[in-house]
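Issue: ligand-bound run for NDP - logging full I/O for the record.

Environment: standard queue, default settings, no custom constraints.

Inputs:
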Amino acid sequence: MSTEKVKCLIIGSGPAGYTAAIYTGRANIAPVLYEGLQPGGQLTITTEVENFPGYPEGISGTQLMEDLRKQAERFGADIRNGIATSADLSKRPYRITIDDEKVIEAETVIISTGATAKYLGLEDEQKYAGMGVSACATCDGFFYRKKTVAVVGGGDTACEEAVYLAGLAKQVYLIVRKPFLRASKIMQARVMNHPNIKVLFEHNAVGLYGENGVEGVHLVKRQGECNEERYDLPIDGFFLAIGHKPNSDIFKDYLDTDEVGYIITEAGTPRTKVPGVFAAGDVADPHYRQAITAAGSGCKAAIEAERYLSANDLL
Ligand code: NDP
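Outputs:
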């Protein structure tokens, strides 16, 4: 296996990773960044980003990530395709294997691997994968023009996906397990006031049916404390929007994580318990999970990496 030495390795290409690359690039550290499974991260599968400061008219997620990438490249960041497949953080230089075929020996590592969409865990989700089941409305919504779809979840993502799909599909059902939405007030209002969206409170999806793709969902509606009603709802597409799982698996032997898998860092900093290894963005943030907070923590991680290299005479 080939080996390459770098001063700073950044893993992941969302707002945290690119911001870390901009800062370490400007500090002349010559960072190497591996993009991971989804170059540009989660924002590339969202539509309009309205809450990133500096864009009064909003900006598309893809454009924002392209701009961040270009900005990082301008300062010398070496941005590469590739997925970190295993890690040895037992001693410095830390050894990260890329695509099972190359080892990067890094003096500092910035983990900005983000989080991945969760599924309910129904067998039918796998059975109908790519045949009516999706965790990304902006990727797959196009296929459901003038059709009927369901979105599962009651948070901001679910509401955003429902509103997006309602612009394409003729009917959207939002399947919410609680009697209320968890989303922000503005998103709740958009969903509740949309003529094409019907919210099914206290409903759970328990299975899907269909011959050559999804034709409907088996639902259970809670009625009072102990009663429930089971019924089938014809739909053409089934979208999951029930949250995300942090992509921290390969680091778990070396770093502390919480019960969900979020990497635990020293309060208010991106420092993990391994000196010189930092975690930034959604992989370490169970609370805010915003593009701007991810970018902010990527900046902090870069500054920490520079200080660590300097303090250890590694610059
Ligand atoms: P959330 O964790 O906020 O919401 C997840 C939703 O899925 C909840 O309604 C939850 O129900 C439901 N859920 C979870 N598991 C299941 C299950 N097994 N069966 C049925 N329902 C389930 O995740 P989001 O992805 O919506 O948002 C993550 C963060 O990102 C939030 O902080 C959000 O505000 C933010 N965000 C902001 C946006 C913006 O500002 N433009 C856009 C998108 C996200 P329950 O409520 O019962 O737990």
